[in-house]
Amino acid sequence: MTPLLQPETVFDPEVLRAQFPILSRQVNGQPLIYLDNAASAQKPECVIEAVANTYRHSYANVHRGLHTLANEATEAFEAARTKIAAFLGSPSRDHIVLTKGASEAINLVASSFGAGLKAGDEIILSQMEHHSNIVPWHFLRERQGVVIRWAPVDDTGALDLEGFKALLNEKTKLVAITHMSNVLGTVTPAKTLVELAHQAGAAILLDGSQAAVHMPVNVSDLGCDFYVFTGHKLYGPNGTGALYAAGDWLARLQPYQGGGEMIAEVYEDRVIYAEGPHKFEAGTPMIADIIGLGAAIDWLNTQDRMAMFEYERALMDRTLAMMSEIKGLRLIGTAQDKGAIISFAIDGAHPHDLAQLMDKYGVAVRAGHHCAHPLMQRFGITGTVRASFAPYNTLSDGEGFVAALNKALSFLI
Amino acid sequence: MSTSIDQLNSDIQDLIEEFDFLGDWEERYRYLIDLGKDLAPLADHEKNEASKVHGCTSQVWLVYTLHDGVLNVRGDSDAHIVKGLVALLIRLYDQRPIEAARAVDAQSVLNAIGLAEHLSPQRSNGLASMVARLKAAVAA
Asked: B59 to chain A: which residues are within 8 Å by CB?
């Protein structure tokens, strides 16, 4: 594992918190306790400023421009690609396709890689995937007869590695699996999965939507074929994300969408596509937002990220300890290796009721299926309440969350 | 004005007075949830695809019949707050002659009892779906 950049600052949650303007607001007359970070993280002032400053000072359409603003915008936009490449440990920026999120990145792979699949070819997913890493593969099942196999999740929410191994065979063409579950917090043994997939002759895509936020990621070290993440969970603007594609995958895959920017030459009877990532970036991209994502990565690089990761997990553990007295509590996701997400169900209390009542006390949590129907089916539940932590959350947020939960329960039970 | 409309207006007035008597949002929510808890549950076989109301974030079922021009409504939900809303709709619609059922303005009643403002957009959509279904049941 390559070490993270040397932090410029000592991690202090209060100092970090002060950089996020939204966290000082009130909700329903109460101080906001934001614990919906796995759905989307809040943005530090420097990211908000980077987006606003692009529009204020350096905005024009990118690429091929012959004027100053176009050049400035292109430089800042392409600099973000370089920052993303370094952030993921990619050997170069030419492996990074900029997308509007993880969903688009997965759809791109499903479309372009999937074009080479035929009926009977197999794709392995896990039971803990987000719908964004399920539905694009269902397209291939519906349209091309590709077979989806499901790697099981055990009762703790960990991936059943033996069950996964049993699915691999000569028909397996791709493994598409999360690096960290958005519901359970489970961290999957990604490097082992990559080795196993490759031994079976299959390619592997890792969904890093959560992992990129909560742990160091190095795609070169992992050895995966594809890695996707989304910017809005990484303290960046929404409408941003990236696909990392290893080796010569980008040269081998056919384009995803057609339009401007992704071509070299266009004739009445043929098209010559652009090379590298640009081949997959049709149309005007999310210029200011990608520049904002670059700013978010700059910002993360100045932080002591290892301290941030340890802190969020400790905060989760402290909060879990405070929840231990709650009657009928069922934690969903208790795997050994787990990021800072608490998902739970409580006998007699519907998750929607709990979330709606907790909101009255200023606490933002998510309730429902979390875009993971197969996982809900696996655990025999219709939904959970999910509290997901960020390094700007404090122990007082954890205390406020548990207090609001207990008050909400008093309405229902 | 007909007797059934008079009865509807009088029932709405009673409902508004019940809620006026309550204080802050906590008391209103507790009362709403209690209304739901007092509701007779639907039998399992009544909770089917036909009775399920879509557009709700939680599961909601409405069963209604028209007998001799009178609407009969029952309902259920797996979430307490929504079940309370179902109970409110039953207060407004159940056992009403068609003429009165058509005159119900559920949204304005919820506004008057200080609950509409507390409903999240998704919940409101669910309520809107429930109301739309009842309106369709008694449409001309």
From this structure: 382
